[in-house]
Specification:
The complex is a heterodimer of chains A (421) and B (388). Helices cover 52% and strands 11% of the residues of chain A. Chain A is an alpha/beta fold and 421 residues long. Chain A has a four-stranded parallel sheet with strand order 2-1-3-4, sandwiched between helices. In chain A, helix 1 (7-29) runs parallel beside helix 9 (219-227). The longest helix of chain A is centred in the first third of the chain and has 23 residues, at 7-29. In chain B, strand 7 (326-332), helix 13 and strand 8 (356-361) form a beta-alpha-beta unit. Chain B is an alpha/beta fold and 388 residues long. Classes of the chains: A alpha/beta (421), B alpha/beta (388).
Chain lengths: 421, 388
């Protein structure tokens, strides 16, 4: 089948492939590797020490997309990991039990440091405790407090900055053998801000009618570089500039997003989507939307590694404080009322017809409270909501027929609402 | 009171999901307030120092039919948030003047947000305990959190909380924790005198009684139980229960384990009530004392980061210190902290050759036959084939 791809999609795929190659070569080249997480990732800081970041969540979702995750999860469960817990964790552990060959078929290096950025997800703490047992390597714990009150308190920021100074940076220095170079960090943060400007512009381009992008299915490709190993690099600046140019062209042409089956010709439904996508049946899931001419104009998953549409940019003038604010602002670190406010804003600003929640079994951080959030957003905006359930990377928890049925019924309901209006 | 009367008192408090006892406490004097809190740890001393009653909320157990609570949760979420919401929407928690949600997992964390959405205008506070244990860093952060709580509770209570108030409350809770430690020590020494299924009722009373009354009740129980000549040592296996620190098991499950031949000599049930493992200093700056106690004298539990990497240490220490013969892992279904922790604890036990078994439960588990078989087989296997 001839799968259509945007140029930027090919570009980001190459970036990730090159990164996995670099990781595979790391042991022989003597490069040190830091495992960390997407929410709260301190890529600029890690890279400023010439360390290579590796994100187990990215490995897991890539394994899901390549249909490898099911076997890895089964392996982990055979080794005593509960069927009830996060499948990203089990996929990662199962992959390591089977030889730690990464999603591109190349071996993944062991960590020299686990940077436990404890941001927006309880499971992160247990995940890296498990990996610490497995690899017997040092851990740097960065506890990012929860934005329970819908705002960043100065003492929360101070706490993170102090941890960076006393825990994270000393361990990065120890592992890398290099001293902390704040000028180098600032330079990277400058590049981050430029990339963030372009990413934010791209995501907000969906306010156009028709939207030139799909902000969920297409969006997960767009966030790939900035949420993985490239924020702060020239590669990210170039990628996001190219992506922006591509989207500008589509707006000028009045064109819709590019789907695997070609450009969307007609935009019939505009949806906001909350929750991570399913990775094991990603293309099938996407097809359920574009076949019905439904485009996602805003999503919350594309904010899981950083929220930029409320104006935040990494600030090179306050390097450690800005890293703290970045961590605090990641989507799953926001309170439920703040998430409801954001979703309500998205529905209004992006002129959405509805809100669809894809609730994933693995992720309590996202999922707990989503039924109430749905009710709240419906009440505030008047748009109807839909609720479907699947999982991140466990193929046993994606029922295509069930999900397709629900989506179709939902879209029919939107049609009826229009007819009445 | 006789032992039977004491047990009936404790049982009545356990069954009181309407919190009538809290209502009676409030009605006994004008202006009284009560603050609810979820598991695991909250600094109850601060609430008490404001003249308010800390009330532990651990869901509705097996005595509450959930009607509306289920509508807000997917099937793969544990039961405690559902029954807690049910308690609230059915008006049973109206007696509380505020609700605290300590950082234990994402379910409880997000439940705090649901509370804000469902009950706007009510006092809700998420408590982010530090996972950094450096006094200058995590300690400084925790101190500021405690100062905020102090200010909040003072505002709620309509009065200042002085350092003397706080020192007095710390002393009261020191006595309470000492009584609980004594109960655990005696249970370990003579589990047939203080069976878990009974002791649990007394422990649980600490969720709803003023600490002074709870301490008195515990002391009476410690005095009265040994006087019952019918309590005889049985040929049971000595086991530790691990995983029950948040969503509590139904009482029948504990009875079942004992009937299956297990003497539970240690556990992590309601560990928040004895989270601080020694006396908190009552001299000097009381907030500094609470900070120091949290950083250096907290119990080990799945929701607390282990900087030294030795997750199984507490369990192995308990196993040795209590002369246990095995460990029973019992986690609530879908409990991320317990279930993610378990492989590390199991690995630690396996390295030392400690026998263990596991099962899952929910707070409303009603059928115990399978658990009885499994626990009974485990207990038998220890007695028949253990090297010790």
């Amino acid at each position: 089948m001839n799968v259509q791809r945007e140029t930027s999609m090919t570009l980001q795929k190459q970036l990730l492939s090159d990164h996995y190659d670099a990781l595979a070569r790391a042991p022989e080249e003597g490069r040190k590797v830091v495992y960390t997480f997407v929410p709260g990732n301190l890529n600029e800081l890690v890279r400023s020490f010439d360390l290579l970041p590796l994100l187990p969540e990215i490995n897991a979702l890539q394994s899901g997309m390549r249909k490898l995750s099911g076997g890895y999860i089964t392996e982990a469960e055979k080794h005593g990991h509960s069927e009830d817990v996060c499948t990203y964790v089990k996929c990662d552990i199962g992959m390591s039990l089977r030889g730690n060959i990464g999603p591109t078929g190349k071996p993944l290096p062991k960590p020299d440091l686990l940077l436990l950025s404890y941001t927006g997800c309880f499971t992160f703490m247990k995940w890296f405790e498990l990996l610490r047992e497995q690899y017997d390597c040092p851990v740097a714990m960065l506890h990012v407090p929860y934005q329970a009150d819908g705002r960043i308190d100065p003492h929360q920021r101070d706490y993170i900055v102090q941890q960076l100074r006393t825990e994270v940076i000393p361990k990065l220095e120890q592992v890398s053998g290099r001293a902390y170079d704040e000028d180098r960090l600032r330079e990277m943060l400058r590049r981050s801000a430029r990339a963030e400007d372009d990413l934010s512009w791209v995501l907000q381009s969906a306010k156009n009618v028709p939207s030139p992008i799909d902000a969920y299915f297409g969006g997960v490709y767009y966030i790939g570089p900035i949420f993985s190993a490239f924020r702060g690099t020239d590669d990210a600046v170039r990628y996001y500039a190219a992506l922006r140019a591509e989207v500008e062209e589509r707006i000028a042409a009045g064109a819709g997003p590019v789907t695997p089956d070609g450009p969307m010709k007609n935009e019939r439904y505009r949806l906001v989507v909350e929750g991570p996508p399913n990775w094991t049946s990603f293309r099938d899931f996407w097809r359920m939307f574009y076949e019905e001419e439904a485009v996602v104009v805003a999503s919350t998953y594309t904010k899981v590694g950083g929220l930029y549409d409320t104006g935040f940019r990494h600030d090179p003038d306050s390097p450690l404080e800005t890293l703290a604010d970045y961590c605090l602002g990641c989507y799953t670190n926001l309170s439920l009322p703040a998430r409801v406010d954001l979703l309500t804003r998205y529905v209004r600003e992006y002129r959405a017809d509805g809100l669809l929640i894809n609730s994933v079994k693995s992720c309590n951080s996202f999922s707990v409270g989503q039924l109430l959030m749905l009710r709240e957003v419906e009440s505030r905006t008047g748009v109807p909501g839909a609720f479907i359930e699947s999982d991140l990377v466990d193929p046993r928890y994606f029922s295509a027929a069930n999900i397709k049925n629900r989506i179709e019924s939902y879209l029919q309901m939107l049609d009826q609402k229009r007819a009445i209006a | 009171m006789t032992l039977q009367q004491l047990v009936e008192t404790a049982r009545a408090l356990y069954d009181d999901i309407d919190l009538d006892c809290v209502r009676r406490w409030k009605d006994a004097a004008p202006g009284r307030k009560a603050i609810g809190h979820m598991p695991v740890y909250v600094p109850r001393e601060l609430i008490h120092a404001a003249g308010m009653l800390p009330v532990g909320v651990v869901g509705g157990g097996d005595r509450l039919e959930i009607i509306r609570g289920d509508a807000l949760f997917q099937s793969y979420i544990c039961r405690i948030p559902r029954s807690t919401i049910e308690l609230a929407v059915s008006g049973r928690l109206d007696v509380l003047d505020g609700m605290l949600f300590p950082s234990i997992c994402d379910v409880i964390r997000n439940l705090s947000g649901m509370w804000q959405l469902l009950f706007p205008g009510r006092y809700v506070r998420y408590i982010d305990v530090p996972q950094n244990f450096d006094a200058r860093v995590g300690g400084a952060f925790w101190r500021l959190e405690l100062e905020r709580l102090r200010a909040d509770f003072a505002a709620l209570a309509g009065r200042e909380i002085t350092d003397d108030d706080l020192r007095h409350s710390i002393a009261v809770y020191n006595e309470n924790r000492a009584a609980i430690r004594d109960l655990y020590r005696e249970r370990s020494r003579r589990p047939w005198i203080f069976p878990l299924s009974e002791a649990f009722l007394f422990l649980r009373a600490g969720n709803v009684l003023p600490p002074e009354e709870h301490t008195a009740l515990l002391r009476e129980y410690l005095r009265a139980a040994p006087l019952d000549a019918n309590r005889r040592e049985q040929d049971h296996s000595r086991v530790i229960l691990a995983g029950m620190f948040c969503e509590q098991p139904p009482h029948g499950l504990l009875v079942t384990l004992e009937r299956a031949g297990c003497d539970v000599v240690d556990d992590d049930l309601l560990i928040g009530l004895r989270w601080i493992t020694r006396d908190v200093d009552i001299e000097g700056d009381p907030l500094a004392a609470l900070v120091d106690a949290y950083l250096h004298a907290s119990a080990s539990s799945a929701s607390r980061y282990a900087p030294d990497g030795d997750r199984a240490r507490w369990l192995l220490d308990s196993y040795a210190g209590n002369h246990a013969e095995g460990v029973v892992f019992c986690a609530p279904s879908f409990c991320d902290p317990a279930l993610l922790d378990q492989p590390m604890l199991v690995a630690g036990l396996d390295r030392q050759g400690v026998p263990h078994t596991e099962f899952k439960y929910s707070e409303d588990t009603g059928q115990f036959a399978v658990i009885r078989e499994q626990a009974g087989t485990f207990s038998d296997s220890i007695r028949l084939w253990s090297a010790t």
